[in-house]
Structure formats: structure tokens, C-alpha cells
């Protein structure tokens, strides 16, 4: 028997300022997305505390009421009881890739738990090393714990890419293949070997890696997935159905990985060089300022989870 969402729909409309305050409403996978004439007329606190409403988000000029997977049924009830203009279903895939690629950070909440856990394990290893002298080279316990703690950070691009895939609504395994290319074993050594024979190029276009390659990096993976999401959408539109299952990931993987190595590496190297030159110049006449800027640069990613937690709590 289907559940009746009439009361919920009426309550949402009433506390969104009434039917007359709603210009239009549409929905995505989990949210009702209202365009309101006057947001001040809405009672957000009431809706956030109401059963069957997860939360309320104000973003992109919309008043978004998060319902859950049954949002299509609630949407139909809203249209039925309110007589408001319906705008249909949001194409979540296309909407997601139009956003700024750094918006992938916003949905890091599922990522923070394992990140914190890996950091704590590394702290335990540090204590064992300081007190007992145990290291991965002389003790099996330290070796196992080091692998558990460092593994997450070592292959951070894969974790980042998977999270970005969900944000940009891409095929998870295509994204994992792209991220795996970034952390391919001995990549830096192979690049060095190519340099010795003058072959560090891709069809005569120079290749470059960030200092220390892509291990433990954040931004390259996000940018790679953002680019790949546009490629995937385009390929799905033009590829015949009978070859879509392998042709879409094939082209997406080829182009996204190539562009990442051709553009992200050199850009990262240039940015690193500019930052280094700037810090060196500052060091020459303001030692204290140099220390502050260097510390800020090194602490940026470590502070990122804290900033994200605060942002989620405020929502």
C-alpha cells in the first residue's frame, strides 16, 4: 500500500510561505527544490525539526527541502495539494558537473571518519616509535599499523576521486581507473628514466609531474574527475547504445588521464616554483612573515577537515 504524503506536502508548502509564495518546484534524487518569491516568509526552523524532513538547504537561489529517496512521491503530493507550477526532475548528472570542481569538498563528510582514523593510527605508531623504538623496519606490529595509517594518505587521490565521482555523478569504476593512473607504481622513476633518453613527452608535448608525483595529493584528482565528468556526459550523448558500455569509459579514461598528465603536472610544478620563489623572497627581508606563510601553506590541508566539519554543522 502506498504511503499518503498529503499532510507532509501541505505542511511543507505552508511553512515555505504558502502556495502563493512558491514560483515553482522541482526535485532531484533526494530534495524538493523550491523557487520562492520571498524567502523571509519561510519557517526553516520548523521544517528542519519536522519528522520526515532531513534538513533544509538554501543554495543556488533555491529553497531545498531534503526528503530522501521517496522525494518523487512527496513532489507529486506537493503538486496535487498546492496547485503550484512543477518544473519536473533535475538531471542530477548534468547539474552536478556545472558546479565549480572545488565544490567536491562540500560532501566530504563520509570521508572525514576514515581520514581521522588513519591519522590516529599514525599517531599511535609515532608513540610506539618514541617510547619503544618500534618502526616498520624492526617490528611487525609497527609495520601493520603503519600500513593501516599511511595507506589512506599514500593513495589519497583514489579516496578523493571516489568522493568526487559521487559529487559529479560519474561511474565510480571509471573514476577509480583515472585515480589509479595517478598513483601508478614507480611513475616518478619511470619519468626520470624517460628524461635520461629525452623522451618525456606525449606526442611531442612535454610531460611533467608535481614534486613527489601525485601520491597524497588532493587537487589533481578533483580536477581530473571534473574534466572526466564533462567528457562522460558528452560521450553518452553521441555514443550508440550498443557500444556505450565500453566506449564511454574508454574515451573518458583516455582523454581525462592524458589531459591530467599534460596539464595538471606542469601547472602544479609552475605553481610550486612560484610559491617557492615568493617564500624565498619574503624570507630575505621578513623572517617572521615567511614562517607564518610557510606554516599556513603546510597546514592548509590538515585544517581542511576541521573547516568542513564546521561547515556541515552550520548547515
Helix content: 55-70%
What spatial form do the alpha-carbon principal axes imply?
Answer: extended
Q: For the record, give the distance between the C-alpha atoms at the N and C termini, rounded to a whole number.
A: 35 Å
Number of helices: 12
Total strand segments: 7
Low-confidence stretches: 297-315
Order of helices and strands: HEEHEEHEHHHHHHEEHHH
The averaged pLDDT comes out at 78
Strand numbers in spatial order across the main sheet? 3-4-2-1-5
What does this 3D model show about the protein?
The chain contains 12 helices and 7 strands. It is of the alpha+beta class and 315 residues long. Helix 5 (109-132) packs antiparallel against helix 6. The protein is extended and about 70 Å long. The chain has helices spanning 6-15, 44-49, 71-82, 92-97, 109-132, 140-154, 156-168, 172-182, 187-196, 219-238, 241-285, 287-314; strands at residues 22-27, 31-36, 55-59, 62-66, 86-89, 201-202, 205-206. A 5-stranded mixed sheet has the order 3-4-2-1-5. Strands 6-7 form a two-stranded antiparallel ribbon. It starts with 5 loop residues before the first helix and ends with a helix.
Amino acid at each position: 500500500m502506498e504511503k499518503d504524503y498529503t499532510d507532509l506536502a501541505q505542511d511543507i508548502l505552508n511553512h515555505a510561505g504558502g502556495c502563493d509564495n512558491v514560483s515553482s518546484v522541482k526535485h532531484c534524487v533526494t530534495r524538493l527544490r523550491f523557487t520562492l518569491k520571498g524567502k523571509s516568509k519561510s519557517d526553516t526552523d520548523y521544517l528542519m525539526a519536522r519528522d520526515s524532513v532531513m534538513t533544509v538547504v538554501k543554495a543556488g537561489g533555491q529553497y531545498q527541502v531534503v526528503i530522501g529517496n521517496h522525494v518523487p512521491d512527496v513532489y507529486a503530493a506537493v503538486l496535487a495539494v498546492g496547485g503550484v507550477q512543477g518544473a519536473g526532475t533535475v538531471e542530477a548528472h548534468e547539474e552536478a558537473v556545472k558546479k565549480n570542481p572545488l565544490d567536491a569538498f562540500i560532501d566530504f563528510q563520509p570521508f572525514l571518519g576514515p581520514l581521522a582514523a588513519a591519522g590516529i593510527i599514525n599517531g599511535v605508531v609515532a608513540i610506539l616509535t618514541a617510547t619503544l623504538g618500534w618502526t616498520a623496519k624492526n617490528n611487525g606490529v609497527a609495520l601493520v599499523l603503519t600500513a593501516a595509517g599511511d595507506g589512506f594518505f599514500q593513495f589519497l587521490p583514489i579516496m578523493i576521486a571516489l568522493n568526487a565521482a559521487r559529487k559529479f555523478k560519474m561511474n565510480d569504476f571509471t573514476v577509480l581507473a583515472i585515480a589509479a593512473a595517478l598513483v601508478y607504481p614507480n611513475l616518478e622513476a619511470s619519468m626520470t628514466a624517460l628524461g635520461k633518453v629525452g623522451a618525456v613527452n606525449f606526442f611531442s608535448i612535454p610531460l611533467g609531474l608535481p614534486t613527489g608525483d601525485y601520491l597524497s595529493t588532493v587537487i589533481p584528482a578533483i580536477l581530473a574527475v571534473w574534466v572526466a565528468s564533462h567528457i562522460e556526459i558528452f560521450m553518452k550523448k553521441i555514443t550508440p547504445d550498443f557500444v556505450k558500455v565500453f566506449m564511454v569509459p574508454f574515451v573518458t579514461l583516455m582523454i581525462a588521464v592524458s589531459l591530467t598528465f599534460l596539464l595538471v603536472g606542469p601547472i602544479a610544478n609552475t605553481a610550486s616554483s612560484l610559491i617557492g620563489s615568493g617564500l624565498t623572497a619574503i624570507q630575505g627581508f621578513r623572517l617572521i612573515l615567511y614562517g607564518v606563510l610557510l606554516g599556513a601553506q603546510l597546514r592548509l590541508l590538515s585544517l581542511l577537515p576541521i573547516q568542513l566539519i564546521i561547515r556541515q554543522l552550520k548547515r
